[in-house]
Amino acid sequence: MRSILVIDDNPAVAQALGLLFGLHDIRTLAATSPAAGLALLARERVDLVIADMNFGGDTTSGDEGAALFRAVRAQQPDLPVVLLTAWTHLESAVQLVKAGAADYIGKPWDNDKLIATVENLLELAESTRERQRLLDEQRRRRELLAGQYDLCGTVFASDAMERVVELACRVARGDVRVLITGPNGAGKERIAQIVHANSALRRGPFVAVNCGAIPAELIEAELFGAEAGAFTGAARARVGRFETADGGTLFLDEIGDLPLAGQVKLLRVLETGEFEPLGSSRSRSARVRVLSATNADLPALIRTGRFREDLYYRVNVIEINVPALAERRADILPLARHFLGAAPTLGEDAAAALLAHDWPGNVRELRNCIERAKLLARGRILTAGDLNLPLQRPAAEAEVRRDADQPSREAIETSLREAGGNISRAASNLGLSRQALYRRMERFNLRPVGG
Description:
By secondary structure, the chain is of the alpha/beta class. Helices cover 48% and strands 13% of the residues. The protein is built from 20 helices and 14 strands.
């Protein structure tokens, strides 16, 4: 059952609130002093605190309520606190709301308004607890993943990338071929390294080949080796990448760019485990796990005759898709801070600029951006100007649009009047946070009403 702690030196207040909340299946705990309230808070589960601003008949400053609020926040920083106020100390309550109190309620209170406020805050508190539960579960899950597997220093915060990394770790243990798909610069080679690092061949070499960077006439010699004199310029024998990767992993990046002749030879190696160096008639073998990657649509290449369907099914026993950085925006700032290192630190405007950018070049573009900014930055805090990113829209236009989206003075006055001065309800009706509403009120020189 939901629980509220009422701290008020007048027992009749807690009794009245207890009767009201009981009609809404809310349990009420009562304390008549700050010390008793804090003691109850330490031993009971409480979802919300309603606290008076003054204790004792000869005090009207609200200082005791302020001290109690700070003590509650120190004990449970996320617990919502509603202040019971009188006109004599309304301004003190307003200042505490700006400092983080959930709201203030005037004496005497309106039952309907009070219940609406409390229900909203309890619902918000439940959502906050659920978010924290999910965050704790996520942290435990990732600690377990890092404890069980070698993640090769991979930096991620998004659930999407967590799923990719976990899948790479799981498939590493099986002797199956993996096709890693995703756009250029998204981190496909890092995923291949994770598969290798957690496989039975992890003590062997990890050899990467960019199939798109090798001329078509040299791809066969690059993969399988060549005897001396096998082609013009081959003055001596050449060891191929399959032989170099013996006992380890061969990573074929951009396999979609492999010419058809090379595809035929690769298919034979995958089927038989044997290969012949260019210019040789003697077959050789190597114990190699082949991982492949591509940013191309291989089924589309198959339909146009540029990629062999039988090879596709050979390399694609399990597919791991690495999403673009724009699809896992939670990774942007952790990656940026990782690339920055110890200094300089990332300023708030720089962080906002990084999050606003679309990153068509993915992690590779982000890394290059940060490396460039580190060289050019003049201060110890990296600014948006240091990043030299294209503006999403002109700053003046953005400011005009932001201002146009904010409620007018008249709208705020109307909302406050309709909410009876209840800041939480007025803010909710306007689509603002309490803090944003207070900032807007200060701009228009509006004072809180009601209570």
